[in-house]
Write a structure and sequence with these properties.
Keywords: Membrane, Transmembrane, Transmembrane helix
Strand order of the largest sheet: 1-2
Order of helices and strands: EEH
Number of helices: 1
Radius of gyration: 30 Å
Number of strands: 2
Oligomer: single chain
Protein name: Zinc-ribbon domain-containing protein
Organism: Bifidobacterium choerinum
Distance between the termini: 90 Å
Largest sheet: 2 strands, antiparallel
Bound molecules: zinc ion
Shape: rod-shaped
Pfam families: Zn_Ribbon_1
Strand content: under 5%
Helix content: 55-70%
Structural class: mainly alpha
């Protein structure tokens, strides 16, 4: 036996709305669908954040490489002076 998501009263299998409070029975399914959509959006946001962070990390490595090569260039220039 299904129960109303709002008031908890028992519902007939054929009932489209709760006989006590009038809440549509499909609301639970709609709520589930909303939850799935929210979780999908959250997963996409987390994935995007992870990609951005890995790009920042690799960008930081590039900056380190650039700084190291700049230091190396400065060190190589020094004997010429
Ligand atoms: Zn109800």
């Amino acid at each position: 036996m299904r129960r109303c998501t709002r008031c908890g009263s028992e519902l007939n299998e054929q009932a489209k709305v709760c006989p006590v409070c009038g809440t549509p029975v499909d609301e639970e399914r709609a709520h589930l669908r909303r939850m799935v959509i929210v979780m999908l959006v959250a997963a996409i946001v987390v994935a995007a954040l992870l990609v951005l962070r890995s790009r920042q990390l690799s960008g930081g490595a590039d900056n380190l490489t650039a700084a190291a090569s700049a230091i190396g260039t400065a060190a190589a220039m020094r004997p010429l002076q």
